[in-house]
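Go through this:
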Amino acid sequence: MTVKLLALSGVALATFATPVSAQGPTPKPAPVADLVRQVDIPYTQFRLPNGLRVIVNTDRKAPVVAVSIWYNVGSKFETKGKTGFAHLFEHLMFNGSENAPGDYFDYTKAIGATDLNGTTYFDRTNYFETVPSAALERTLFLESDRMGYLLGAITPAVVDEQRGVVQNEKRQGDNQPYGLVEYKQVENLFPATHPYGHTTIGSMADLDTASVEDVKSWFRGHYAPNNAVLVLSGDIDAAKAKTLVAKYFGAIPRGPESIVPAAPVPTLPVAKYETMKDRVANTRIYRMWAVPGLNDPDSVALDVAAGVLGGLSSSRLDNALVRKEKLAVSVTAGNESFAQVGMFVVSADVRPGVDPALVAKRLDAIIADLIATGPSADEVQRVATRDAARTIAGLESTGGFGGKAVALAQGELYSNDPGFYKKQLVTLAAETPARVKAATAKWLSRPVYGLTVVPGARDAYVEATPPAKVVTAPEPAVKGTRGALPAVGTLGELVYPKIERAKLRNGIELVYAQRTAVPITQAAISFDAGVAADVPGKLGTQQLTLAMMSEGTTTRDSIALAEAKERLGASISAGSSADRTILTLFTPSANLAAATELFADVVRNPKFDPAEVARLKNQQVSRIAAELTSPNGLAARVYPRLVYGAGSPYAKAIGSGDAKAVATLGRDDLVAFQQHWIRPDTARIFVVSDRPLAEVKAALDARFGDWTPTGARGTKDFTAAATPATPRIVLIDRPDSPQSLIVGAAPTALVGTDDLLGITTANDSLGGDFTSRINLDLREDKHWSYGVSGGFRRAEYQTPYVLSAPVQADRTGDSIKALQGDIKAFLTTKGITAPEFDRTITDAIRSLPGNFETSGAVLGAMQSNELYRRPDDYYATLPQKYRAMTAAELDAAARKALDPAKFVWVVVGDASKVRGQLDSIGLPVEVVPAASVADVR
């Protein structure tokens, strides 16, 4: 296919877009109280004699049940010298129990669980999975076994293993720009003896000292049915739930009560200001206060205050410091509420070249003005509408990190009321400027903790002192005291929605699916462009163009546009994948007509105001500088040219672009890009909505049906042969890094439109799952990493294999050797084993219903099918295809696609610690200073 990228120079200043036809007055937004009335989670509640609280929500939209169990124990229960224990114990809960030994994820994978994990924070530890309803009984057996029958499975080797994993999780967080701020935050807002006075991750020293007896004592003191809340949400009713929960949890005895420690909201005696250095690009100024928790009457009002101050796109800080005065490149404000206290945090990233003292003065003045005058009624209404819309959308899911189960469990555990989420929404809808002003004055007039993070070398990192190695104990034998694992029943099939198609008046194709679980509409206009369409020599043009489209139209400036979205509870965003450029709309369906009018204005009528272009350019250049301080940002700017070849259009994927080129861009460049690429003859519209197709089509036709293209359409050139780099190691020197980020990448002959089901299924065992070989090796066996993964980066014309492995710095070289060995063995002498194959196929089939529980998942699947030229019912045909696979076929696919000798390795780490480890690997090593990565050549 011969295509060439057209030059984008010499375009007239006038905007080219066809104006949106007049359609009469824009419909008024639905009142926030009406949105709140749409939010409801019916539930039944009961309690077992041993104290276990159980909440059941019936939701029959898919044959799945979310299982979420919350324990009344978090880091606020830890004592001095035992920090990090709650989180460490959470990890231990995944290493098997007395009647289900081995890795917990082996069991969940065998039943097709989705949305599964565990988390720990100040107030709680929770464990959750969404499972096929036919596998619920087995899941309850597993959860009850680790609640009541865990101690016999805790060995010194298991403690050592997960200690190492947790310490690498800590390193991974600490290694990020501004990654050490959290420690300063809690240590200065709270006294050292306060329950919230230390971070959940804990200290290296305390983790070093954790013994088997320590963790067993933690279990005995906190893990009991009377300290837990179990929520079942989905394809289940209360009667069946009572029978099953009593069967599996009823025999577990009560334990000691977790006594919630007293945690008053502290007030600093005087304001305190500190400065710390970090390897960051921009100076960041923080203002922080300890405030009351979510059960306090002022909590919701403080949420609104944070939204008005720096949470809304049209917030006061955004409008003043970013848009008008151009003193900052970004601002934030948030009120993070916990059960007993909260933290109100405001921040501003100083624009390069601006005096931080001036920004701090203006930041303090704007906060003081909000305290003195309070918000307007419109500001309060916009925050309330935004938050209500987000809540509605989140409740489409039954479980996971959000969803119905989380709302019910959190309400019961923190507030003794599963319906507490509803009370908060009602309070939010009723908030007034006077109430918000009073709460803001009460809590933010107190002495502040101010922290300024400036570019510079970090203080020396406090590393772990590993305890003596413990000889690995054999896997504990199944005691058999509870009988065999319950059988998995007859599984429900994937209920994939019917896909319908229509055309707008101008020929734009509309691809539609109806989902009625929540009154939300999600739409995506997909243009045949993507990263591959960015402008050679001017990389970053596309990103700046897309950013500008949300910063004003011919009829609305950037502030008016932001306010209009907020009044509707809508969001409009833009982004790109390798092959597509996508603008998306999210809106409560009650506001569909008004939201589509706004969406069309953004897509068709961007103003590209020169003053706004100058501002957004500065922000993008600042963002590029930030990428050069981030491990992931640095790696992402280097490996594409190595694995795709410098001449490939996909090698343009270098984060936010070329800083030097972005600095030279003008309005003409952006107008030209949009004219060539953001146009109706490259567009296809995808919609998932509770509203019928006829209504959706009418709304879109009214706004987009008369849109016509102007000028020549852009084209992409993939005719040049790909010339990936020869195998090597590129070490990006990032001083003060406690961890190294390893990215391994190998070219393949695959293209995205091939049938890649076999090869991606084979990769499940190599790098595509928690139970994959590379993750189990570096995380579970060697505990050098918090997590390792690898997969095919599928694009229309090239599909390389890329893996990512953040590892402790002193094991960088050993980790690359281990990865090389794992990959080579998988592709030669140690192909997919029978257990791996069975586990992969079973999971692939059983997890399908859970994978498509939400509208967002369906919207993404529809777009993937279009890009890869697959039929609309592709996902419904997968079970049959999986059942026909063999291990030999998967091995053959992997060995044909991947050559272990072709990997290039990018390492982001401290060269003074890492360089010497790389010499014995047998590949040439190139050391690159982090700052030089900015040069796209």
